[in-house]
Amino acid sequence: MMWQFVINGLITGILYSLLAIGFAIVYNTTRIFHIAAAGLYVLAAYTLWYSYIQLHIPLSISVFISILITMLISWVVEITVYRPLKKRGSSLNVMMIASIGIMTIIVNAIALFFGHEAKFVNTEIQQTFSFGNIVLTTPQMWQLTVGTSVLVACILVLKYTGLGRRIRAISEDEVLYSTLGYNVNKTRNVVFAVSGAFIALASCLSAYDVGMGPDVGMNFLINAMVAMMIGGMGRIAPCIAGGVLLGILQSLAVSQIAASWQNAVTFTILLVLLFVRPQGIAGYKKRII
């Protein structure tokens, strides 16, 4: 039974990791606390539901549509909100407040059009797969296989491709990046589009399993942000370690105590980490000159 909880936590951790990367890639490159990611998460889930349930578009195409629309809206947020604020010399605190405003607008618009009741993408009885004493449902298998594949691909892209090197470079020093002749705005466009893709994938995989509501985004984003902090601020790949560790510990806490203690466990882990290793598991201390 314990291994069942561990695997469940691992799968949850993979979803946290996907959303954490979507948040971290924006934060690391722009230093914007991208709270609007919670709204984009909800938008992606409802786009999937509307395409699949209301328009009867095949599931795989509906997921693709959801990812594309979320990437587009993420990019629109950058060029219509963050970039103008940056040109005006606004502080990062102002941008964070603007980001909260974007999230609020998206969530309330969705609630206005679709209501506050929960929506479900798949209401059929799910096929299960048994591996000894471990039982996984079809949505969990998709989460495990697709999520793991995307995370592995993300690590390889960041490490071995030109895009990955540009993202790491702009994360380290945007001014130097611009001085060397690279187009900062073009790279930021790509960053926000990629962020939207990760947010949408995490949302679709979760919505296909447990459904959605207008208010699910912020709770999931909080867990993703904690996962990023556990892995190490300023880096993207360690988000995976942070997400998996958080998911497993939460699942084990549920098995030993109760589901109502899940958030308490999350923030207890964060507080302990902030005192013991504030730079995260794989993070590093930066020297300020």
Please characterize this protein's 3D structure:
A hairpin with a 2-residue loop joins β1 and β2. The longest helix has 29 residues, at 2-30. By secondary structure, this protein is mainly alpha-helical. It contains 11 helices and 2 strands; from the N terminus they run ααααββααααααα. The chain is globular, with a radius of gyration of 19 Å. The model has no long low-confidence stretch (mean pLDDT 90). α5 (138-160) packs antiparallel against α8. Strands 1-2 form a two-stranded antiparallel ribbon. Helices cover 75% and strands 3% of the residues. The relative contact order is 0.20.
Contiguous helical run count: 11
Supply Rg.
19 Å
Order of SSEs: HHHHEEHHHHHHH
Q: Tell me, what's the shape?
A: globular
Q: Tell me the number of strands.
A: 2
The percentage of residues in β strands lies in under 5%
Summarize the amount of helix as a percent range: over 70%
Alpha-carbon distance between the two ends: 52 Å
Largest sheet: 2 strands, antiparallel
Question: Strand sequence of the main sheet, in spatial order?
Answer: 1-2
